Amino acid sequence: MWKFSIRRIMIMIPQVILLSIIVFMLAKMMPGDALTGLIDPNVDPNTIAEKREELGLNDPWYEQYTRWVAGVFTGDLGQSFHFKMPVSELVWQRIVNSFWLSLLTLVLTYLIAIPLGITSGRYNDSWADRLITGYTYIGFAAPLFIFALVMLWIFGFHLGWFPTGGSVKPGLTPGTFEYVMSKLYHMLLPALSMALITTVSTVQYLRSEIIDTKQKDFILTARAKGASESRVYNRHILRNSLLPIAAFFGYEITGLIGGSIFIENIFGYPGMGQLFLNSILLRDYSVVTSLVLLFGILTILGTLLSDIILSLVDPRIRIK
Amino acid sequence: MSEPILKIDNLRTSFRIKDDYYPAVDGVSLTVNKNELLAIVGESGCGKSALAFSIMNLHSRAKIEGNIDFKGQNIANLPTSKLNKLRGKDMGMIFQDPLTALNPLMIIGEQIGEILLIHGTNSAEKRKERVLELLNKVGIPRPEHVFNQFPHELSGGMRQRVVIAMAIANNPELLIADEPTTSLDVTIQSQILDLIKELKEESGAGVILITHDLGVVAEMADRVAVMYAGQIVEIADVYTLFENPLHPYTRSLLNSVPTANEEQSTLHVIQGVVPALQNLPREGCRFGARIPWIADSAHEKNPQLHEVSPGHFVRCTCYKDFHFPDRDKEGNRHVVS
Ligand SMILES: Nc1ncnc2c1ncn2[C@@H]1O[C@H](COP(=O)(O)OP(=O)(O)O)[C@@H](O)[C@H]1O
Ligand code: SF4
Ligand SMILES: [Mg+2]
Asked: What is the DSSP string of A84-134?
């Protein structure tokens, strides 16, 4: 197990290095640089050139890259030219918001997926199964941002059950019960909108896993032992079907990153997804670069997590 | 004196294909006695597994008709709750493929222990003790170690031993082995068969051994039933069957194909394969189509099992029209003196 994890983490290192180089190159290739959005175009070009030299923007790329990487390691992601504050500080605020929103989304995703997947798989071809499968097809077909807009319109604007923006009601003291409840209240609609869509893949996965396991030979063995239907189901079918779902968890995180970009922008939720889109529009490229790097690392970590979970729960991998 | 433990009477097991039911086992009657090993032979697809699974009602969707008397009660279509008291206790099953028959996520000790737990061994200590005893009995070295291993850590032969340990855990009176060695290495096969025979001798259980290997039959069986297309075409004790096989199908399995008549001495071969379930002829002989060299008039309209000598049954009477070079028309060997 330890061997496996360590080897798996070692594989990660070149992935991260590669990612950082790609991100850096992309940032350099973006039209305009840090100064373009910052400086009044009427300023004397000589001054700009000086400024460039001063900031090291004329150095060879590998020098700039090393400087950048060294910065990243010391927590210095540069300055946001738009917000006029260190990117690390800016990102940190947003990360916390995004973290809670993602956590709630994940919890809701599984709260929906597990009972639906189990019902659908256990009683496949029943009317309940048809209903659930129907829902998953709709979920697959409906684009997240359109669905989220519809949810926002119905429950936010039309019915007024949920706030339509922000992450907390202004004027509350952080740490109080009201503050926490208000945060939760603000997260609920975006999280639910996302969960309802992203959960369908987990539902389908669980369903097909269960249907597949039901037909395995060892289920017949269990029946031949005289095991009751509930025992066969809980001990053999369910246990063996939930395993790949556990491994799916890490990939789920990866999916959340993409989803959060839509969701946070639609619900005006101040998280990383919203910051990302804004920064692109504002050409606040030190922020964009940092976020792309962060998203990339999270994706790699998600995959790592999946592999480690799988190795923990599946003895066939654990041994190797 | 032979005492029947299982009596199957006119069993029909039908599978649903599209909207109709097609019998894969079609009117099988047979008896298994205590301490007797009945072999069922026949080529692939002739309904051997369908028959074996019907006894324990392991088919998920099949229509079962007829009687299956086990220990004095008819267990055909018994409710699952009642059947579960017999499955794994009074009857055990050894499956064909040990690689897939074990739950990959359960340690061996737990898998064997489960069958004890289901049938009332509640103390975990007693279960462990019994599991170790069983592992020892089926010839697994280092039982303490294997107890905590997962199936994938064992070889195919070892896994089949585990499956056998499971099947005999509660000392069943009937053991059904469905091609238990087909998926194993040749060298391992005889070890596993020896083990089954040994366990049978020791426990006095009735055993149904399904195989398509006649070498195995000759070595292991007390009686043999030859199946073709869901029916028994010949059944006899092992000596009679090898000495005096009468049905053309049995003879083809034994590799000595009869010639059509005395004038022609050309060797006729049995052609084709078992037809798919939907395409089986349901009237007349199911086998006729595969021996076109027999005259139409020789076929029986509705071939029945005939008892040609005590305990030796052959479907149809066509054997009388065959010419076996070394036998007379009754199938008796010519004694040349
Ligand atoms: N569950 C099932 N549904 C439909 N047809 C089946 C099913 N199981 C077996 N059959 C068919 O029944 C026939 C007998 O199969 P089987 O008993 O497995 O043969 P054997 O064990 O002798 O090789 C075959 O034609 C097979 O295709
Ligand atoms: S003679 Fe009888 S057993 Fe032989 S092929 Fe014809 S019907 Fe079948
Ligand atoms: Mg078979």
From this structure: TEEHHHHHHHHHHHHHHHHHHHHHHHHHHHHHHHHHHHHTTTSHHHHHHHH
Residue A47's Cα: distance from chain center in Å?
Answer: 42
Residue B150: closest C-alpha in chain A: A315
- State what percent of residues in chain A have pLDDT above 90: 21
> B210 in helix, strand or coil?
strand
Nearest to B10 by CA among B67, B55, B76: B67
Share of chain B above pLDDT 70, in %: 84
Crossing angle of helices B156-167 and A217-224, rounded to 10°? 30
Q: Which of B247, B299, B305, B321 to mutate to test the pocket of ligand 2 (most atoms within 8 A of CB)?
A: B299
Q: Taking Cα atoms as reference points, which of B58, B86, B54, B92 lies closest to residue B73?
A: B86
CATH number of the CATH domain containing A237? 1.10.3720.10
* B97–A217 CB contact, under 8 Å: yes
Residue A95 resides in a domain: yes
A235 contacts B105? CB cut-off 8 A: no
Q: Kindly tell me the sign of the dihedral angle through the C-alpha atoms of A214, A217, A222, A228.
A: positive
Give A319's contacts in chain B (Cβ within 8 Å).
150, 152-153
ipTM score assigned to the predicted complex: 0.86
Q: Which range among A15-19, A41-45, A143-147, A297-301 shows the weakest confidence by mean pLDDT?
A: A41-45
Best of B46, B60, B213 for a ligand 1 pocket test (most atoms within 8 Å of beta carbon): B46
Please indicate, yes or no, if residue B98 is contained in any of the structural domains: no
Reference B42, options B194, B212, B161, B162; nearest CA is B212
Name the DSSP class of B61: S
Whether residues A226 and B86 touch (CB distance < 8 A) is answered with yes
Q: Are B83 and B131 in contact (CB under 8 A)?
A: no
What is the phi-psi region of residue B171: left when phi exceeds 0, alpha when psi lies from -120 to 50, beta otherwise? Answer: left
- Interface contact A226-B100, CB threshold 8 A: no
Is the alpha carbon torsion for B149, B152, B155, B158 positive or negative? positive
Continuous segment of H or E residues that includes residue A11: helix A2-29
**How far does the CA of residue B224 sit from the closest CA of chain A (Å)?**
25
Q: Which of B169, B187, B220 is the endpoint of a domain?
A: B169
Say yes or no to pLDDT of B263 above 80.
Answer: no
Range of the structural domain that residue A112 is part of = 89-272
Q: Which of B169, B189, B208 finishes a domain?
A: B169
Rounded to whole angstroms, the Cα distance separating B277 from B289 reads 15
Select from A155, A153, A150 the least CA-distant residue to A138.
Answer: A150
Q: B11 exposed, middle or buried (CB, 10 Å; 0-12, 13-18, 19+)?
A: buried
The answer to whether position A35 is within a domain reads no
Looking at ligand 1, which atom is closest to the CA of residue B230? 14
Judgement on whether residues B2 and B84 belong to the same structural domain of the protein: yes
Yes or no: say if A267 and A165 are a contact pair by the CB < 8 Å rule. Answer: yes
Under DSSP, the state recorded for A267 is T
What lies within 8 Å, CB to CB, of A100 at 6+ separation is A183, A187
CA distance A158 to chain B (A): 50
Model confidence, pTM? 0.80
* A183-205 pLDDT tens trace: 888 888 999 999 999 899 899 99
